Amino acid sequence: MPKYIFITGGVVSSLGKGIASASIGKMLEAKGLRVTMQKLDPYINVDPGTMNPYQHGEVYVTDDGAETDLDLGHYQRFTNTPLGKVNNVTTGQVYYTVISKERRGDYLGGTVQVVPHITDEIKERIRNVSKGKRPDVVISEIGGTVGDIESLPFLEAVRQFRHEVGKENAIFVHLTLIPYIKAAGELKSKPTQHSVGRLREIGIQPDILLCRTEKRIPKEVRDKIALFCNIDPEAVIEARDVRTIYEVPLMFKDQGLDKVICDFLGLEYRAGSLLEWKREVVDRTLKPAKRVKIAVVGKYIDLQDAYKSIYEALKHGGLAHHTDVVIKRYNAERMQRGNIARLLNKVDGILVPGGFGNRGIEGKIRVIQYARENKIPFLGICLGMQCAVIEFARSVAELKNANSTEFNKKTAHPVISLLEEQQDIKNLGGTMRLGAYDCRLKKGTHSFRAYRAEEISERHRHRYEFNYKYRETLEKHGLMVAGIHQSSTGPLVEIIELDGKLHPWFVAGQFHPEFKSKPDKPHPLFRDFVGNALRFKRSEHGDNGENGDQPESSDFPSVEEIIHASSED
Ligand code: GLN
């Protein structure tokens, strides 16, 4: 039987529970333990696939086609946990199962209740996550903040779970906030005491506290927290703000959190090393030799989390070149007008991410035209690829008013159209083309050079695709189909590129490469995109990226800039 770690959060949301959980996973993996991670989300949506990014942030997609919480992205970037449908449980899924069973008559004669039916189903799903995987440790993160009404069934379920498996097999870790009150010049432990009190009321005594704080927590404050929250002093861990999220596992390990966890769970304490992670990821992030500026042009740019995996993958791409990637986020809608050359002045690469709906489309297309004509390295992702095809069709192949049928059903040139299998679908939840599909790359393309393989597999989340009828016309004008998936209904275009005569590095994929990138294993397309941005910078500004714009330790980590206005505003 695996050991279980349940992670809860208190006081306020956005303390970084996902990163803390992933960091614990990383630290344990460094000791040679096999880790499986799971997120329990208390909302009633079956999955976040139907939520607006403003509600939820990015939707992370797994190989088996689950639309999941973005915390699974953190798990993937920090650890080697297997990820699929079973790794994200929501209240919606739990109720769906219980209600279906009730209708089938599985509970005939009984009243169906939150306790025991809903809590049993939650426990079943916690057990299920390790089926067929034999992990040493399962880390289950409970979404929301202690005190929320909707978290209660989850907390009751994990309380029972621990009671059933025994204290030596399951522990509770609580992430909390120690605010610094400037006027008093003091760190305050009271909110933490209240939050732990709240947990105790429902029968959970945390074993470990992770204390988010801006300042060092002095020993007396730490001892006070330990005393009033009934926790061993060495299990009160400081979670200070760090310069890069990838430093968190090191910070935890430095305080002996790995030993504390192993002791609680009776795991043999094996010395593990995070040295490589420190050298290859943290040190490279903190001491870059070069810097490039990449524009990300999307609809949800003012929300940090909407393109989370893309921002991270860009940073990873930079690490491969010892380069700091400064991300400039542009609001696509505002790019429809204004002096585009001035707005995009000094960017070394342009990325257009995925998205849905009409808003901002023409701005994206205008930016892509600028990238194409000015030979600025370009990476298009999903909708970004579709927009690149539309732009090329309109401006180069002279297919007037070419469009996607998503934006104009009656367009004369539907270069992007609905996938055949999508045509009769009425329900919108979980019905896109989802998950991993293989793709065959054409030799001699940028993509082939990046992946160094002919067969690849990438994850998808879309309904529309490249209309194959236009392949010949577009190819005649210099657009190249670089990757194809052979489906039962025919070939699907997965990657397009521009011929080397037209542009030095213009690549766009129908899939989401960002979901597979890791800081210590940057995705090949992001790596080469950043590499070409560096080359562009060198040729444009005559520097090799190592002069002039070199980062200084004082302006690190680079801040992301958000550009809302067009130059006329
Ligand atoms: N809206 C487009 C489609 O459904 C693109 C989706 C995406 O970018 N994820 O095909």
TrEMBL record:
Residues the record lists as binding ATP: 14-19, 71, 240-242
Domain CTP synthase N-terminal: 3-267
Matches recorded under SUPFAM superfamilies: Class I glutamine amidotransferase-like (SSF52317), P-loop containing nucleoside triphosphate hydrolases (SSF52540)
One GO term describing the cellular component: cytoophidium
Annotated binding of Mg(2+), by residue: 71, 141
UniProt GO MF annotations: ATP binding; CTP synthase activity; glutaminase activity; identical protein binding; metal ion binding
GO biological process: 'de novo' CTP biosynthetic process; pyrimidine nucleobase biosynthetic process
Positions contributing to UTP binding: 13, 188-193, 224
Highest taxon of source: Bacteria
Binding sites annotated in the UniProt record for CTP: 13, 148-150, 188-193, 224
Residues annotated as the enzyme's active site: 382 (nucleophile), 512, 514
Keywords carried by this UniProt record: ATP-binding, Glutamine amidotransferase, Ligase, Magnesium, Metal-binding, Nucleotide-binding, Pyrimidine biosynthesis
Biological pathway: Pyrimidine metabolism; CTP biosynthesis via de novo pathway; CTP from UDP: step 2/2
Domain annotation Glutamine amidotransferase: ranges: 303-530
Pfam family, one: GATase
Role of this protein: Catalyzes the ATP-dependent amination of UTP to CTP with either L-glutamine or ammonia as the source of nitrogen. Regulates intracellular CTP levels through interactions with the four ribonucleotide triphosphates.
Record PANTHER family: CTP SYNTHASE, CTP SYNTHASE-RELATED
NCBIfam families: PRK05380.1 (NF003792), PyrG (TIGR00337)
Other facts noted in the record for this chain: CTPSs have evolved a hybrid strategy for distinguishing between UTP and CTP. The overlapping regions of the product feedback inhibitory and substrate sites recognize a common feature in both compounds, the triphosphate moiety. To differentiate isosteric substrate and product pyrimidine rings, an additional pocket far from the expected kinase/ligase catalytic site, specifically recognizes the cytosine and ribose portions of the product inhibitor.
Xref: HAMAP family: PyrG
The protein's name in its UniProt record: CTP synthase
